[in-house]
Design brief:
25% of the residues lie in helices and 18% in strands. It is of the alpha/beta class. The two termini are 32 Å apart.
Length: 338
């Protein structure tokens, strides 16, 4: 995997510690607005770095949100927060400009758009794939719904991993996926967490207690784990009573970040995210309380690297990819893909 240089514009330079400027988060079921400069959107953590998750439709969404996954091949920096000492800004000519079409058959790198519950598992799969094949993969992580919208708007990417089937169905119905490439690759699980060092709620009903005044979940309008969290709370008769305590994150990784930094007292989040964190106690939410989080992927119509995209998807479905997913709490698909 190539370690392509990347530099944030000065006003988007990552900084260590909690969300910059984060005070109390917006409640009453509104999206949180903590941290980033005005107009820049929320932040997402990947491999210990804080990355801009640009607003839907932002013309620079791919430029500002592209990350070449930094793993052992890049000097073992995974888990380091912020930019390392002595790192120099990327040269202007080295910065990726993905708003332009890539010439066909000339770019050996894959661009994968993936749900943020894969923030820990997918980089590990990417590195295993690189070792096996020598192929490099760039990852863009975000909420499944927002990424689907970018694909509908013509984002020049190769492969899409959603956290549920719904958004793959939508793209397939609109002709934005290569026919015959859709595959189910995992089943996700919801979990309850509280701030590190404190005991998590033992069940959803505990969220009504006085110690949990701010509860983070991914926005149910475009994030599958947020949709599942809403269903589970509704099934327990808790949704309306907790509405004033809920804060919506842009995606499930950001919801976890709100709890990690103390900006939320508890969170209904993805098991696949928190198992990438050390010593974080959690409680699984019974999966009969919500629609199964059956996760699907497909090659994007217009991919310049369709053969390589198919090969990577098959790697995820094969034993090595499934073993890595299982390590982060993902279960195998319940039935063969249609």
């Amino acid at each position: 995997m190539m370690c392509a240089p990347w530099a944030f514009p000065p006003e988007m330079t990552p900084s260590p510690g909690p969300l910059a400027g984060a005070g109390p988060l917006a409640g009453a079921g509104h999206a949180a607005e903590a941290g980033p400069p005005a107009g820049r959107g929320p932040l997402l953590a990947l491999a210990g770095r804080r990355l801009p998750l640009l607003p839907l439709g932002h013309p620079s969404f791919l430029v500002g949100f592209l990350v070449t996954v930094v793993l052992a091949a890049c000097g073992g920096e995974s888990g380091a927060g912020g930019w390392g000492a002595g790192e120099s800004p990327a040269r202007e000519e080295d910065r990726a400009d993905l708003s332009r079409d890539r010439p066909p058959d000339r770019d050996p790198r894959l661009l994968v758009l993936a749900a943020s519950d894969l923030v820990h598992a997918l980089p590990e799969i990417v590195e295993a794939f690189r070792v096996r094949t020598g192929m490099d993969v760039d990852l863009v992580l975000g909420s499944s719904g927002n990424l689907a919208t970018q694909i509908e708007n013509g984002a020049p990417a190769d492969l899409y991993f959603s956290a549920n089937r719904h958004f793959v169905d939508r793209l397939e119905g609109r002709g934005r996926l290569v026919p015959g490439t859709r595959r189910d690759y995992a089943v996700g699980r919801l979990a309850l967490i509280s701030a590190p060092g404190s005991s998590p709620p033992t069940g959803l009903a505990d969220l009504a207690g006085p110690e949990f005044q701010v509860i983070a979940l991914a926005n149910p309008e475009h994030a599958p784990y947020g949709m599942a969290a809403r269903e589970a709370l509704q099934a327990q008769g808790l949704w309306e009573g907790l509405a004033a305590r809920l804060v919506y994150a842009e995606n499930i990784a950001q919801a976890t970040q709100f709890v990690r930094t103390g900006n939320a007292d508890a969170g209904v989040v993805a098991l696949g995210v928190i198992l990438g964190e050390r010593n974080w106690d959690h409680r699984l939410i019974p999966d009969h309380l919500h629609t199964p989080l059956l996760q699907a992927a497909a090659v994007i119509q217009g991919s310049r690297n369709e053969a390589a995209a198919r090969r990577f998807l098959e790697f995820v479905l094969a034993e090595e990819g499934q073993t890595i997913l299982a390590r982060y709490g993902f279960e195998p698909p319940m039935e063969p893909s249609p």
